[in-house]
Design goal:
Layout lengths: L5 E4 L1 H5 L7 H9 L3 H16 L5 H11 L6 H14 L5 H12 L3 E6 L6 H14 L2 E4 H4 L6 H11 L6 E5 L2 H9 L3 E4 L3 H9 L3
Parallel strand pairs: 1-2, 1-4, 2-3, 4-5
Helix pairs in contact: 2-5, 3-4, 4-5
């Protein structure tokens, strides 16, 4: 009998599809920033968004300030809409697999870095998935972000399972590595087929 009893899913790039490819060109149209410049801004400030220390408009206000720029409110509002919409296309293959796992007796969890302002988009994109979940941890609600160990401990507590019985899927390697350091089984998500193979390979 397998030791895994619970499967925990990240949201962005796992429950939802990878970020919409039109996002960065649209940001460039609005701001003139390149993809690399946006990513540098995210590296500096996105954790503050996920911890709910700033809202989405505040994130892009900080990125602009780092560049010595001030963006009008209408542009900040448009960037929020673009950002949130770009992460909001559901992955039907993940949902179908989660239904199979639930029917097979696995507990289902959602562990995501997400500001509270995104929750309406989250619910629209992942409403059916959330209905399957036995537990969820949202970083903005808890004010703890991956890859901090505390967020994995909280998720295990809510799942009601020991870390060694949990299998975590995330599209970011640092979050996968942190889960493993906390005693979880974890894999970076590439596709449902790859995730199934990784789960099947576990004892």
């Amino acid at each position: 009998m397998k030791t895994i009893q619970g499967i925990v899913f990240d949201f962005g790039g796992v429950i939802s599809q990878a970020q919409d490819a039109t996002f960065f060109p649209e940001v460039r149209r609005l701001t003139g920033w390149s993809r690399e410049e946006v990513l540098d801004g995210w590296k500096a400030h996105r954790r503050a968004l996920d911890a709910d220390d700033v809202d989405a408009q505040g994130l892009y206000r900080l990125i602009a300030a780092d560049r010595g720029e001030t963006l009008p409110q209408t542009t900040l509002d448009a960037l929020k809409q673009l950002d949130y919409d770009s992460w909001s296309v559901p992955n039907p293959e993940t949902l179908a697999w989660a239904r199979e796992l639930k029917a097979a007796g696995f507990r289902i969890g959602i562990l995501t870095n997400m500001p509270t302002g995104f929750i309406p988009w989250f619910d629209r994109c992942a409403h059916d998935f959330r209905a399957l979940a036995d537990a969820e941890v949202i970083s903005g609600v808890e004010r703890i972000t991956k890859p901090k160990p505390e967020i994995y401990a909280l998720m295990a507590q809510r799942m009601g399972l020991p870390p060694a019985s949990l299998f975590f899927l995330d599209d970011t390697q640092a979050n996968v590595d942190a889960a493993r350091a906390c005693g979880w089984h974890a894999e970076r998500f590439v596709s449902v087929a790859q995730a199934k193979a990784a789960l099947d390979a576990l004892p």
